[in-house]
Amino acid sequence: MPEITIQAADGGSFMAYVAKPRQTMAPVMVVIQEIFGVNQVMRDICDDLAADGYIAICPDIFWRQEPGIQLTDKTEAEWKRAFELFGGFDVEKGIDDLIATVKVGREIEGSNGKVGTIGYCLGGKMAFLMAARSDADCNVSYYGVGIDALLNEATGIRNPLLMHVAEEDKFVPKEAQAKFIAGLKGNGNVTIHVYPGMDHAFARVGGEHYNRDAAMQANQRTAEFLKKNLK
């Protein structure tokens, strides 16, 4: 079952890549894409989560603009198209699609009923919003963008949220980081780790700013967080 179709709340449907573990009655992780679509990087993350015992579902949240697009971070033309899609992305409809995906995750064959989300870049922002607006059991945000402008959402966070922040993120200025870190400090459901010297997408294998040590540390923290909250 490499792909499934999910019905959107406002009509239409979208594709989601699915990776399943060998065992049944497993928790589900909704993997939220970067600005490059459900590409090989996202599919590899799903496959790794399946190897760790999770059902991983990565929905195509760009489907309203260009269904099935898969870009890389290797060419200027692909970066340009990725930013066009990012600029045209409807966050509100994206959240609706992710909530629909969580619902499917609770009911999909082999699910134990528990569902978390994990997102990167744009997906990191969406994971933050899912923590505030959805009933997902836990959420993980890797170098989410624009979160400083979303602090009014923080009061809605009632389930655990883990955030990985790149100290030298070229898309999230230090002032923005300081603002949301301070703004979330009083919420006991939120755990934030800052990675000194790291740039955006430090955990993207093969990416320009990939850092093996920092990625391993973040991923280990994520693994422990998911085990605690979903297994």
TrEMBL record:
Pfam families with a match to the protein in the record: DLH
Coiled-coil stretches: none
Domain Dienelactone hydrolase residue range list: 14-228
Domain of life: Bacteria
GO terms for MF: hydrolase activity
The protein, known as: Carboxymethylenebutenolidase
Organism: Oceanibaculum pacificum
